[in-house]
Amino acid sequence: MARKKDIFEVFFRKKPAMILVALMKSTKNRYGSVLAKEVDCTYSHAVKILQEMQKANLVNFEKKGRIKVINLTENGTKVAEHIEKIRGFL
Q1: pLDDT tens profile 15-49
Q2: DSSP letter string over 40-87?
Q3: Residue 67 region, left (φ>0) first, then alpha (ψ -120 to 50), else beta?
Q4: Would you tell me which CATH number, out of the four given (1.10.10.10, 1.10.8.640, 1.10.287.130, 3.40.50.300), belongs to the domain 2-89?
Q5: Which residues contact 67 (CB under 8 A, 6 or more apart)?
Q6: Residue 61: which of 90, 89, 35 has the closest Cα?
């Protein structure tokens, strides 16, 4: 199994790919701090990744009070699904 993980990381940067997949698999509201813990990275790194994803129209932020909820866009969902499929092949 370790070999499969290694080859996956050759094609994809692990943290961004796993953030998209985590967002896709979630049924509850998602916040930057929760995602950072799930993919084992710092909050600031997760925010930087999410901002780039927002620019690429993969995620959007919805302000609810003082916090921002993160949602996948239609494109983000498609990309996350493909990442999961590719990971399954490896």
Answers
A1: 999 999 999 998 777 888 889 999 999 999 999 99
A2: T--HHHHHHHHHHHHHTTSEEEEEETTEEEEEE-HHHHHHHHHHHHHH
A3: beta
A4: 1.10.10.10
A5: 31
A6: 35
